[in-house]
Write a structure and sequence with these properties.
Radius of gyration: 23 Å
Largest sheet: 4 strands, mixed
Structural class: alpha/beta
Order of helices and strands: EHHHHHEEHHHEHHHEHEEEHHE
Oligomer: single chain
Distance between the termini: 31 Å
Number of strands: 9
Strand content: 5-15%
Number of helices: 14
Helix content: 40-55%
Amino acid sequence: SLLISDLTHEELSLLIMEMINLDFNGRLSMAIEIFRGNHPKRFLHQLVSSQLDMDRLDYLNRDSFFTGVAEGVIGYDRIIKMLSVRNNELVVESKGIYSIEKFLISRRLMYWQVYLHKTVLSAEQLLVKIIKRAKEISKGRKILSAPALSYFLESNFEKKDLQSNEEMVPRFADLDDTDVITSIKMWRSDEDFILSWLSTHLLERKLYRIELRNSPFSRQDILEKKHLLKNLATINDADLHYFIFTDSTSNHAYSPLSGKINILFKDDSMKDIAEASDLLNIRVLEDPVVKYYLCSPKEVG
């Protein structure tokens, strides 16, 4: 998390559930045990968090609808009908194998066409740089921002602070997109050139130019971009990373190490989908795909 160091989405979700559980006098205790994977019926946790959980079945169809990317549409209703339980584990009946194959392929396509699309990466990185710059400035002076966001900008909170600060989780839950966008609109006029430039470019959708490769960018690639930028604007070397930087992103549509999708056959035997499928590309989906990207202002070219 940018606002609370070393805190993951799952850890924050658990903290919120535990707070709600106190208000509900322990009535969420079973749900929390399922979420943690500590419930005796392990398949319940698999329904919540696994390679074939209900969240994944839901968001592929929903995101496909809202983005217009038809490849994400899957027959989730048939998959659900084909689910069964053997040895306390979630399995899929063999007649549903083709639906699972389509689910995995659709997930891969949606990641590279939507979730990790270069425009999405560019916008996300620009937003990250804005928040990092705002936090950097907040160390020396107060900047205008929504109160819900100011609370986190003005302090360097870490995960360990959650134990002593009962305000943090409720305040984080109170923070939403409106607070962030409102603050960015204020920062567009901030006296700091970098914060103002970044904020203006996000609001006007002048995103970073982003180049994707299958191999890392060289130091020379980055230096050339930085040299071009310095010819266009007076920027300290220490601040060039806000404008020109490289990173990588990866995805694998199927990760059996995080829990296999087991296919149940009529003779009561089970096989991992990668072994049961007659499609070669299902096995290929186990390997993570890594892409490297270089971001720079479009003005640099």
